[in-house]
Each structure stands twice: as C-alpha cells, then as structure tokens.
Design a protein that fits this description.
The protein is an alpha+beta fold and about 260 residues long. The protein has one domain: Alpha-Beta Complex (Creatine Amidinohydrolase). Helix content is about 30%, strand content about 25%. The strands form 5 sheets. Strands 1, 2, 4 and 5 form a 4-stranded antiparallel sheet that branches. Strand 11 and strand 12 form a beta hairpin. Helix 2 packs across helix 3 and helix 4 packs antiparallel against helix 5. The termini are far apart.
Length: about 260
Amino acid sequence: MDNGKRRRAASIAIRTREELEGISAAGRLASRLRRELGRRVRPGISTLELDRFAERYLDERGAAAAQKGYNGYPYSLCAAVNDCVCHGLPDERLLREGDLVTIDFVVELNGWMADTAWTYAVGKVSREAEGLRKHAYKAMMSGIARARPGSRLGDIAAGVEEATDNGAYGVVAQYGGHGIGRRIHEPPEVPFVGFAGTGVQLKEGMVLTIEPMLTLGSPEVYIAEDGWSVRTMEGGLAAQFEHTVAIKEDGPLILTC
C-alpha cells in the first residue's frame, strides 16, 4: 500500500459503541419517517407536499433534514420520479398511477446522521416497474450481506451485481455510497460497480450507506438543467433502496431498519 492509500484508509472513522448508538438513534427516526412517507405516497399527492410533511415531522421530534442547505440543496427530501435516478427536486406536479418515486433523505439527530432511500410504487405499476423495484431491493440487501469485517468494498459491488438477473438491469456507476456519521459524506466512497477482493478492507465499527441504483436499459445518466436531477440517458425507469449499515464483528447491522 502506498502512502496515499494508507492515509485514505486511516481517515475512515471507526465508531465506538456510544457513537454507533447516536447514529442508530438517527437511523430509527429515519426508518419511522420512511414508513410515514410510504403511507402517504399515492396518486394525486405532490412530492413537494411530501417534502413539507417530512420537514415538519423531523422538526417536531427535535431533528433536522441534514441535506437541506448541503451544497445549497434547497429541500428536505430528494424525490426522483420514473427516469430520475437521484437528487430529484420536490415540486408541485402530482404523482400519477403507475409512477415510481424514490424518496431519499438524511436525518440529523443530536449531531449524528443516518441516510435512507426507498422506491415506492404509486398505485398499481407495470410488471417491468415492479420487477425493477424488487431487483433494486435485492441488490441493496445482497450488497449489505457482504459488508463484514475482512471483506472489501469490491465485495459489496460484486454482491450488487449478483442481484441484477445476469445483467438484465443496469447499475449506475457514477454514484455510490459513502461513510456517514457527523457529516453526510465521509470516507470511504462505496462503489457498486467493481470486482470482488478489491478496494478498502472493511473493519468493525465502520458505518456505510449501501444504496445501489438500478435502471431499465442503459445505466448511463446525465444531470438535468435544474443542476441537481440525475436522469437516465435513454429515459428508462430507475429504482434505488438505501440503508445505513454498521460493520459489526458478527456481520452487518442495519441502522435504518
């Protein structure tokens, strides 16, 4: 390992039991908010209305939406509809029967953060859309299963790849997971396209977000004119699920569940 790699590895936080409890408390609140949002996703509601609900929900519980203001981002949620992969801006357009909407947010509670995302079906969706949702969830869980002490980041990517039905679904390479704790984005970067046995070795006490993004058709993406929304180049649907995960001695511990 060269000196640069040694410094990068050393910068990854190893959390104490007390620190993990702080992140876990934020994660439990994020999980409750995620369920409340899921109950509200339906045809005829706008993502801006969901955003306002989330901000009130967190404020009433002494927490905050950490991404609001992060690099100038103006909302409490990211809301990605259909061909939007991530970083979609909430707006007043009404969700329609058959849409997919991914809600992504970071909860800050007592200085600790947890990150989660979920792709919801709006009413009844097509067989293809439901298949994408199911495989995106499987991809996340397959990646999480590899998040063990002694494994490497590439093992997580290989786990994601195994859930793509032999390449029937694309995996977006330009965006990945990350460490999290006191800040939204901490080392390491977590790729979801890669090879088993490569990358940083995982150690007990690390905390990562595992959040692969799958697409129908090409996984190539571009940033829309609003400067935030990431969309599929070919207009295919996208889906994403995300948990914040702690690396424990006996395996991964999901903190947003």
